[in-house]
Amino acid sequence: MFSLQVVAQTNQRDSLRAIRKPTGLRIGTDLIAIGKTIAQQPLQSWEISADVDLGRYYPILELGKWSREAELTNGLYNNEGQYFRVGIDINFLLKDPDKNMVFIGMRYGRAQYSERVAYAVTPELFPALQLTSSNPNAAAGWVELTSGLRVKVWSGLWMGYTARMKFLPHTKDTPGFDSYDIPGYGLPFKGLYWGFNYQVFWRIPFRSH
Amino acid sequence: MLISLLGLWGCLTEPDCFDTSTNRVAFGFYNAANSPVEVEIDSIAISGLPQLLIPTPKTLRQIALPINPAETDVTITLYFGNVPQTVSLRYQLQTEVVSQDCGALAYIADLNVTESTFENITILNNRLATNAGINVKITLE
Asked: In chain A, how many domains are there?
């Protein structure tokens, strides 16, 4: 009797953790990015995401556009580009009937962008110089560990947040200078960079036959 | 705990605002035994500079001479009394964007000798920086 109960509980747990047929597509956007863009902040960006449920596993694709202008003490830096992240979130709320989520996940991000810096230098004994340097076709990649929440608010409307720990930035095609700011990542010289999205989603259920 | 440590690491990896960029090439003079040796230089002509430079003191073991970051070549003539010795260098400018507070820096790099009347001249460090030591080693027989 006791052993049968244990087997039944194990089967139920395995069933909750199994990969299942998807029941809907959830599309979202980052409200913080939109807010900064509307407020005319130096960082202008938008981002959309889409995920589907495969049981407790949520494959996710995020696309974004980003441009930053940074005033330097001796010049001006700006960049513009687009990025995507692909990865998976794992839900730890296995029994929630609404499929609310507390999750951890992982992403791999890639960015394609251009960047330019114009600055002044004053060499000894020679006239002051105005210099420019650029990376017109730069590319970068990085890895993220994510954590966050997704909560059903009403009907298909969901809200949530994603906290991101970004690391292992790597760039290529940067002949002008080492990249200062990577779209979708941030400042690569920090080695480890944190990100935060406050998101709103709409979930489109798939028809079941 | 781990997340706090990782966060601290994120804070500690801010770039330092050490500006070591310079447009001075450091020349060092050595004898055949590879020891620094004193030379007496009366004046110096650098292409792009209209005036001659007079070193003080005239007797020295090393000297740092300015070159023009706007160009990629320079010819420097050292006058040992009435005897001129010339060295021509080629170089490139490299940009580093450090931070908003530190700004962008221009480093002169890829320094190489294209021509020289010195018989024995070598590049020890091909990037100019205030902490780079000697860039060009001149060995006198």
From this structure: 1
